[in-house]
Amino acid sequence: QRRVMGEVSSKMRFLTNSKRGSASFQHKHVIPLFAVIVVALFVIFKQSSNVSSTEYEVFMEYQREYYNNHTAIMRDFLEKANTRHDHVARTLLMYVTKDDDVLDLGCGNGVNARAVVNVSRSVTAVDLSDKLLEDARHFVSNVTFIQHDVTTLSLGRKFSVIIMADSFEHIPLHRRQSLFDVVEKHSTAKALLYIHIPSYLILEWTRRFDPTSLQPTDEPIHTHELVSMWAERGFELIFLDRWSDNYFDAVFRRRESTEIW
Length: 261
Prior knowledge:
alpha/beta; globular
């Protein structure tokens, strides 16, 4: 009980004084009472596979509001130079070609979609936050932006490149299986999957020493675990690299025989 209440207390502190990676993320706003209930529910059930659909919907609404409230702060990613996002763009440009149809899962305000829109055939980008997508549509042209939970997505088409940059760690553990199904369903034979994610150590350190800077869901994962779980779904690692000491890139290629028709 002390552990649960400690996590709830940490989440509540983060709601009223959020920051992520720099002082520019400090932001105060009034949180309605229902948000406190949502946080408590999520802390209790986030490790469980038995989360009810109602509990999950309530939490996703809270998560959507969180990102909506940080739209102005995250706009800096589009308007100002950012070395990490520049690194992501350079890595994507190593793989995306003019014949590729790209699906960006958890696209935020479109910073990564912008990086590939002029070098690919098409880009479809999906995010939960309507406010972030408003910014995306304002700053990025020729991209199809869709508001949707990426773990329940069904577009009825396939893509040759799937991007998950700064989004895989924000998928609740009990929804990972659903995410794997979505990626499988939307990927062509030999599709590329690009994941850019914080290192396990930096997220664990943050959980212990600076929990108020965490986002609603920030699930740490070891590199070997990431590689293993995608290999089980038919995606083979073809590139692994580290950016600074805090993030790494993983590029997977789907084995042709695993495509679902």
